[in-house]
Amino acid sequence: MRRVIPWLMAGLMCALATVLTAADAMPLWAYGYSAPPAPPGGPAPAAGGTGRGGSPAPDVPKTLTGAPMSFTRAQLFNLYGPADWFPNDHPPMPEIVAKGRQDGRIFACSLCHRAHGKGQPENAPVSGLPVSYFIQTMTDFKNGVRKSSDARKVNAGLMTGFAKAMTDAEIRAAADYFGAIKWTPWVTVRETNVVPKTHIANNLFLANEDGEKEPLGRRIIEVPENNEAVETLRDPRSGFIAYVPTGSIKKGEGLVTTGGGGRTIACGLCHGPDLKGVGPVPPIAGRSPSYLVRQLYDMQTGARNAEWTQLMKPVVSKLSDDDFINIAAYVASRP
Ligand code: HEC
Ligand code: HEC
Asked: What pLDDT digit, counting tens, does each position of 302-314 carry?
């Protein structure tokens, strides 16, 4: 990887002739917020929404169609070993993925990224990643060169803590496990101008139950196909819908495949022609568009600024808010 950087960088600099405006505002929706943080000294920043759980109702065991066991909410959301409905849907999990570390410093990776590693819009898809990339990015979290542009994003901070606490063997075990799981789609991309009204819980957008609609505007709104499946049951077979603006996929295709006349660089050059990754360069096709935009923006602001991130610098430096949306809509819609 390191040897490739100099000649690639030299070639890419030529593509930076025209100067366009970079994004000037944080794409809040990609971080799971509807309002910016309060200015220093101002009122306390808005939380990412109401928390999950805390329901005073008795925690009765729940069932899921096709699953052999029933589980309570406490079991399903256990930080150190969330219940697994379908253990045969994935390879046997190493201890760190299934349970985290019992000393309390590391939650089970499967709590947020799920046992199959498809993740949720507010965290990250981790299955099918190259093992070398996985290890590198964990090292970047550990060394503080991969952070979130939004300091309110608690779970991104948690990742740094986990990476610092993990041994090399634990990182390797997690990388091998998730790396061996083939990526399959879990987010359906749908073009529209009108979306369900949403509320936010722990950085995750959820469609309101009343069915009311509102204009999408210049956002991507990614919600569970079924709120209960995610919020209550943690059903590993029920995915997400990403609403993207009408026409964005086509515009994104232009930028991704040609670089848009110097606005960016054709992604296939490094991520492979079908965007499924090459060597240590991660796959991006079919992954959560909220996650993709968060990363592109974090790289543009420098919140994510590791050694390999330097290759992405010329890619993101001139992208506007609309470019992020169009690129993510197209990339997420790829098989
Ligand atoms: C509390 C939730 C949570 C838990 C538990 C968790 N993560 Fe994460 N993880 C996140 C979030 C949030 C991000 C994305 C941060 C961002 O926005 O950049 C992330 C990102 C990642 C990424 C980056 C993926 C990529 O494509 O670059 C890797 C790798 C990862 N996590 C591995 C792990 C491992 C290994 C564990 C278990 C030790 C774990 N995570 C546990 C929340 C979590
Ligand atoms: C010159 C090579 C190169 C080009 C061109 C390139 N990328 Fe990347 N990309 C990388 C590398 C290397 C990484 C890993 C960066 C890191 O580890 O911080 C990466 C990481 C990413 C990530 C983060 C993935 C994750 O799992 O967190 C996204 C998203 C991404 N690229 C999107 C794009 C898009 C979209 C384009 C085209 C508009 C593009 N890249 C063009 C080399 C490239």
From this structure: 999 999 999 999 9
Ligand 2: residue whose CA is nearest its atom 3: 270
Give pairs for 256-264: CB < 8 Å, separation 24+: 256/327, 256/330, 256/331, 259/15, 260/323, 261/18, 262/15, 262/16, 262/17, 262/18, 263/18, 263/20, 263/318, 263/319, 263/323, 264/315, 264/316, 264/318, 264/319, 264/323, 264/327
**Residue 109 alpha carbon, nearest atom of ligand 1:** 37
Q: Which of 174, 173, 182 is nearest to 89 (CA)?
A: 182
Whether residue 144 is predicted with pLDDT greater than 60 in this model: the reply is yes
Residues of the chain with pLDDT > 70, as a percent, come to 89
Residue type, 53: G
Phi-psi region of 220 (alpha: psi -120 to 50; beta: other; left: phi over 0): beta
145 in contact with ligand 2, CB cutoff 6 A: no
